[in-house]
Amino acid sequence: MANIQQVAMQAGVSVATVSRVLNKQKSVAANTRIKVEEAIKQLNYEPSLLGRSLRTSESRILLVLIPKISNPFYLDIIQGIETSALDHGYNILLCETDSKPERENIYFDLVKKKMADGIISMDPTVNIDTLIKMAENHAIIQCSEYSNDSGIPYVTIDNEQAAYRAVKHLIMIGHQKIALVNTDEKFLYANQRKKGYISALNEYNIPIRDEYILYTRELGFENGQQAIRNILRLENQPTAVFAVSDMLAIGALKELSSNGVHVPNDMAVVGFDKIDFSNMTNPTLTTVAQPMREMGEIAATKLIAKIKGEKVESVILNHELVIRESTSG
Amino acid sequence: MANIQQVAMQAGVSVATVSRVLNKQKSVAANTRIKVEEAIKQLNYEPSLLGRSLRTSESRILLVLIPKISNPFYLDIIQGIETSALDHGYNILLCETDSKPERENIYFDLVKKKMADGIISMDPTVNIDTLIKMAENHAIIQCSEYSNDSGIPYVTIDNEQAAYRAVKHLIMIGHQKIALVNTDEKFLYANQRKKGYISALNEYNIPIRDEYILYTRELGFENGQQAIRNILRLENQPTAVFAVSDMLAIGALKELSSNGVHVPNDMAVVGFDKIDFSNMTNPTLTTVAQPMREMGEIAATKLIAKIKGEKVESVILNHELVIRESTSG
DNA sequence: CAATCAGATGTAATCGATTTCAGAGAGAAA
DNA sequence: TTTCTCTCTGAAATCGATTACATCTGATTG
């Protein structure tokens, strides 16, 4: 509980000298440095970050906004962010917005009020106008989800290309009747993944059927189950399903198995995200892997650069199709 | 970017008056208050938390320590903590320790250096000596995992009783040969759950067989698979498995199904924790539900009370056995 | 009318660090 | 000896808020 004054007194020097020792400045005589270090040890002194932050006007805390902490999609990204942040001497404040503006605002306030230096937003439902306004005065990076014309730098993958590849894979293994389990197209990724789906079908002259394109309200397990129930009611049933998220696909797997539909023999399934759990299902899930850890690391690095006043550009990373049991008998 | 001085100047009052308005003190004349509020609006002023925290020596930030963010067990607890914290005007800093002391120390430092007001530790591998030493000067609560003689208040369930009930359930539906998939007994919960397992068997005069008690190194899916592989190699195979964690149990389910062992007909399985995924498996998993959200809320409330200098006591909450498909044909 | 009091506001100290600027002292050069 | 440099150190301002205490005004009371 000692402060810098007491350390200075104990060491018989001024606070300025103590501060110099703390900040490893070289213009301190060796024996003075030793005296100060001993005083620090004796008093069990820890410099207050509040005092320092107030003076230097940086808190070295980064905010990470996600809609739901329970969504496993974010796990690796967060790990990437955290690793990179710690390397740069920053800490992260993980914030669950629950897709509610009032909770977003709590966290935006933390930045406005100087308690945090910048934001990595991964919330697709974020109030984009607020975000753009914030970005005028504060460092912000969007990760995974982004908006094209906001001027806010982002780190993401080419969703359209990734979806195209996933659907093309289904076509190559012989499927023609392919359903898309999508979510609300107000989300850019949903829109882009649908485009990829359509362009793959177009390329092979497979007609687009409206009844094969389903929309779910959320990305949960139950939504995937519900979508399959709807699909199984169709007269002309598809032989493959491309779901825009692993959780949807896993819900689909479960519902198919409950209905005695064999995967992949009766119905092939492809997911998106390669969450950990996608390897624990029976059968294991074919899915699109995003370089999540890398995305997180890059997002953090860029944010820190932005905080330091550098100009940063958006990045589009590569993805990878991981073929597993749900598409290979 | 305005500060309180500029607001005071703009409103034609002193900083003290502005501060009074900010803190909603009543001894401000109505029209003065209006002048100040207008100045605040005009300058787009946001009070700096750093200045405030430095002066009041409280940051209103709580640290939550967990070993792995990817462990779904913690999700609801965190939600509970966060809800309760926000209600009290606190924010939480979610910290993944990765069970590494050097990462723990980074976060402990944050408290020592006044950037955070207290800690909720959920890390069973936490360096307990460091924690006890920290607890002398700082507010700390243990949640879920705890140590008996540390003097640090905790919020948890009666693990022994819960395990006892789970195993008793298996006995009641006719099982006599029950395996325990446990983890390292250095963890208090592992120790306690084993006690519950033993006391249930004892109560029904079922002999304890060493080969039915397995230990895994971690609580992951693969560890559960591995344990089942070992069990299937036994000459005299058990007919039921009690795993001390859902992830272990889910790994077990998968491995059993891969080996053509039907659950629950050939082998019943019980897990522990009632993580979300436990309802998404095929068959769904019988498990012990901890009141996780409540645990989190109580932990946060107690921590805040502790920060305010009140004396707080430990709490043991109720659990519940959730019977699902993996134990009911 | 003087004394007392309450309400509204301002002055200035304070929290704990960093940092600018100036000064002391030692040694080198003239 | 004087002057100049260079190294090391300290005094004091500063970041942006809160708050104890002082002050002023006007109303109330005896």
Automatic annotation (TrEMBL), chains A, B:
Ranges of residues in domain HTH lacI-type: 2-56
Record's protein name: DNA-binding transcriptional regulator CytR
Coiled coil location: none
InterPro entries: HTH_LacI, Lambda_DNA-bd_dom_sf, Peripla_BP/Lac1_sug-bd_dom, Peripla_BP_I
Keywords, sorted A to Z: Aminotransferase, DNA-binding, Transcription, Transcription regulation, Transferase
UniProt xrefs under PROSITE patterns: HTH_LACI_2 (PS50932)
GO molecular function, one term: DNA binding
Transcription keyword on record: yes
